[in-house]
Amino acid sequence: MSKVSIVFFIFIENNQKFWDFLMSNNLQEGRRSDPSTEIAAKDMDFLQKVMAKGNMSDVYDARDLTEIVFRTMRDLMTTEAAADVADELRTPASAANERVVKEDIADLWKDSNPIVRFLSQVRPALEFDDDTFLFRIAKEGGLPQTTGSDPKVTPPETVVSAVFSATKDELSEARIAEIANFLPGKVRTLWEAA
């Protein structure tokens, strides 16, 4: 057993809150981003917006990239602000549509990895610049390096703008302004332009 495994094992044994959190989450559910995991019909409208605006041809890519953009956004936000966004994404889009609860987008906002979800609740907001934000989207999303000459390659800015645009359609003006305060440099500009 490696030193890291031993330390993690001791951490779990000695941290009842962490252990309880892991056990309260269904660890057998697997990651949503597993390509074999079907996409719920409730997620399709939002993901189709992301696909259209992000020049994507695959709904699974739209889902995976949306989760990555959301995770990177949450990393910059306080725990309370991220929870406020999740709560707002669960509310009906309009009074005329009160019965439709937007659990689909709230589910995408919530990290599918229970360990990452727990750690994001106990750690402070991270600080990083716009280049790091876009680098994470490119690397975690498996986007090929862009040279500007290949029209089939979607740059991370396009992906981020697509997710931002679809997300802003679901949020109040106050929440949109709050999120903007957490975003760095050109990422904030992408948010405001979306």
Quick structural summary:
The protein is built from eleven helices and no strands. By secondary structure, the protein is mainly alpha-helical.
What does the model show?
This protein has 194 residues and is mainly alpha-helical. The protein has one domain: Globin-like, CATH 1.10.490.110. It has 11 helices and no strands. It has helices at 3-14, 16-24, 44-53, 59-76, 79-89, 103-109, 114-122, 130-140, 156-168, 173-182, 185-193. It is globular and about 35 Å long.
Which terms summarize this structure?
Globin-like, 0% strand, 194 residues, 11 helices, mainly alpha, single chain
Low-confidence stretches: 26-33, 95-103
CATH superfamily, by name, is Uncharacterized conserved protein DUF2267
Using the coordinates above, name the CATH class.
Answer: Mainly Alpha
Structural class from helices and strands? Answer: mainly alpha
Find the count of extended strands (DSSP E, 2+ residues). 0
Largest sheet: none
Mean pLDDT: 79
Overall number of domains: 1
| Residues in helices, as a percent range | 55-70%
- What CATH calls the topology is Globin-like
Proportion of strand residues: under 5%
Name of the CATH architecture: Orthogonal Bundle
Along the chain, the helix and strand elements come as HHHHHHHHHHH
Individual helix count: 11
Computed CA radius of gyration, to the nearest angstrom: 18 Å
Approximate shape: globular
